[in-house]
Amino acid sequence: MQKTVKANAIKRLKSASGHLDHVIKQVEQEKYCIDILQQSLAVQSALRAVDNIILKGHLEEHVVQAMHGKDKEKSIQEVVDVFEKARK
């Protein structure tokens, strides 16, 4: 994993972790449901951002190389499989 990809992913994951901690506290304190949902959506958004950072890094670092070699089909299938899981 590229250093910049790793740093950006960690930054976003820590942000998501902070939002999640806040959601947990809100639920424990029985806060207003809409406020909890808004924080939950922020967690989900942060995690999607992490997914995008990691996917872009993977495409740049690994898939580009694989497209010129014998692992072309395997690399394509890996990316397709990830997208299929994301849609479930």
Automatic annotation (TrEMBL):
Keywords: Cytoplasm, Metal-binding. GO terms for cellular component: cytoplasm. GO terms for molecular function: DNA binding; metal ion binding. It comes from the Bacteria. GO terms for biological process: negative regulation of DNA-templated transcription. The keyword Cytoplasm applies. It is found in: Cytoplasm. Homodimer. This is Copper-sensing transcriptional repressor CsoR. It comes from Candidatus Curtissbacteria bacterium RIFCSPLOWO2_01_FULL_42_50.
